[in-house]
Structure formats: structure tokens, C-alpha cells
Write the C-alpha cells for this entry.
Amino acid sequence: MAFYFEEYCLDTARRELSQGTHLVPVEPQVFDLLAFLVSNRERVITKDDLLEEIWGGRVVSESTLTSRINAARRAVDDTGAEQRLIRTIARKGFRFVGTVTTELAGSDEALPILPAASSLFQRVQFCTATDGVRIAYATVGEGLPIVKAGNWLNHLEYDWESPVWSHLLSALASRYLLIRYDARGNGLSDWDVREISFDALVRDLESVIDTATAGKKFALLGISQGCAACIDYAVRHPDRVSHLILYGGFARGRRKRGCAAEAEKADALMVLMRSGWGQENPAFRQLFTSQFIPDGTADQMRWFNDLQRLTTTPENAARIRYAADEIDVSGLLARVTVPTLVLHCRDDAVQPFEEGRRLAAGIPGSRFVALEGRNHLFLKDEPARCRFLDEVHRFLGAPPGKTADGSHIRIHPNLDHPRQSVRVPQASVR
């Protein structure tokens, strides 16, 4: 179905919003919300309608709902006070009031209005770790299970909507059963916890796997500090893991790399985090944001700044950071026996490229892929994203096709090319 209004075309088959000849970038959830409003423009859409259709019946905050409505308005340039397209009906809900024509691709025949639908609805549930901490996890998609370990500050709902994370999550969920969670101390999991340590973070991962995978084998995805937990789990349970994917990771935390300057910097950050993390002024959190996504847009940086503030408390942020700085799984690398893919951006400003090489050099038979870029969390429009998905799909044996956002998945025929895939011998890293 294609809906035409003003100079816009909303194509639900292609999941594209275009203005004239130009595609308008829009997040998947915002697209679904806009399509639902347009499809049902003959009536007022209540908040309960939106919660049922867009969030699968889950309760979300008023600020989340307002954020998604505002994003839909921005997508169609309806941010003025007159609300010419998406009108707020006081105490009732919202209604799309623009003039719309509809057609099926290749046909001039008008068609009845059908509600929008999306298969990418994540389901949030809870499990309990061995020490009684409640861990929130989400499942979305279908196919080969991929379990993504928790990393530096996650929020199951906020990440799903964020322009920093959503493009990667939706691309994976379009082909696999994606299982991810908020580790203890942040996101939707329990914040008031006695222990935040590497061992506790591994136990959180084990609890989610035991609950969500129904005993099936799965691929394990680690990003940044999540890589170490994945390595630990893969060594303990090699029979459960079909593939191990490590991106932007490290075996040694900052305090374990033998550099006094790194340890002093880590101590200074602990002090600053406890005093400045939760403030409305994002100046301190911007220090982290500018390292994680130095090439991010103003909107992407704002999202990441807000993510850090809303995801946890200043004290927990410092505790999580300290636990990451104390990680050392160097002794486990040689014991990894599952097929392993290691990827790292050459100019990563958060975790040095050398740490990625060390991971690959220590894991027997692993494949190392150097990605071009300097963002620790690669963004939607940079080459590293396509390359990452190419390599992951090939590694997992998925056929070529399209991701949920419509981008093509390309498969490199020559994985031994030095700029595509590198096997790093153990002797090359000292």
C-alpha cells in the first residue's frame, strides 16, 4: 500500500517515506506509528490504540510516547503550531488530518484502508539471576538465536528507539531471533544491587540464556565490554554456543594493561562520574559520547547523552565502569573452541585497535576483520555498518538479501583479501 499526502509518499510495502524523489530517514517504530495514523485517519487514535499496535500492549512512559509522536511530526515537517497533518485531540488522542490518496504499486485502483503491521515487535520479560537480581531481557525476530551480551549501559526500550542502536538491532532482528538484556544496575533490570562485578555480569548472561534459549544452540554476540563475558561463557559452555562474534572488544580492562597513565585516568573518571553523571547539563557525559560516536550528528549525540543519564545512577555508572576496567580474560582466550569472528574499527577512540588484534591473536582459528572508522558504535550511514553485517551474515551462513531497513546485504567473495579478512597469528602480538 502506498499513501500519498502533500509531497510525501508512505510506502508500507517497501517501508519507505519519501518526499518527492528523496527518501526521508525514519526509525522503524516511528514509521509504524506514522503508517498506523495514516491508515486509520478516519478516527481518533487513542493512547491505548498506540500502545497495543506499536508497543504490543506494553506500558510505556508518557515521554516515550510523546517522543515518538514528535519524531513522526518531524519526519513530515509538521512541527508548527497549526498541526496540519498530525493533530492532537485534547484528552482523546491523535488523528491524521491530511488529505490522502492510496494505491497499490502498479495500479491506479483505490484500495480500502488497512492497518499497518510490523513483525519487529520486541517482547520484554524478566528472569532472576542466582543472587535474586531481576534481569530484563527482550526477544524479537525469528530464526537462528543470537544472544547479545550486555555492554556499557543498555536500555531495552531506549536502545530500540535510538538512532545510535536501532539500525543495528532491527537489521539483526530481521534475520535472526535476537535476544538481548539489560545487565544489573542499568536499564530495566534491578538498579539497587549488592554486587556489580565481572563475575556477576557473567551470571546475568547465564541467567538470560538459561531462560530465553530453551536449551537450543545459539550465536553469542559481544560488543565492547560484553565481549569478555561472551568469552567466559563460551569457555564454560562450548556445547551451547554455535558461533562467537566479538566487536570492539578487549581481553584486558584499563587497569590490567600495565599502563600507569591509563589507571590514573580511570581513577579520575570514577570521581567525576560520581559527582557529575546525573546532572541535567550533559557536559560531562559528552566526554564519553564524543569518544563513542565522534562522527555522530547532533541528534545522535543527544540520544546517547540522554541514554547515559536515563539508564542508571551516577554511583552505578561508576561501579559498572570499575568492573569493566578490572576485566582480564587473557588466560581464557586459548581455551575458546567455538568458531569465532573478531571485528574492530581501526581508529576506535574507546577501545584501541590493538586490543581487538590481541583478542583475535589469542583465540585459536579466529577470523579478524578490520573495519574502517573511528566510532566505537558504528552509525547507520557509515561503511563499517554494511561491512559488519556482511561479515556476520556470511559467518552465520545466512543467504544474501535485505535487512529490515531495506539495505542490501552484500557477501564478499574473497574473505582472504587483506582489507577484508585477516587471520592474526599468535606470534604477531606480544
Observations:
- Residues 104-119, 399-430 have pLDDT under 50 and may be disordered.
- The chain is about 35% helix and 15% strand.
- The two ends are 59 Å apart (CA to CA).
- The CA atoms of residues 341 and 367 lie 5 Å apart.
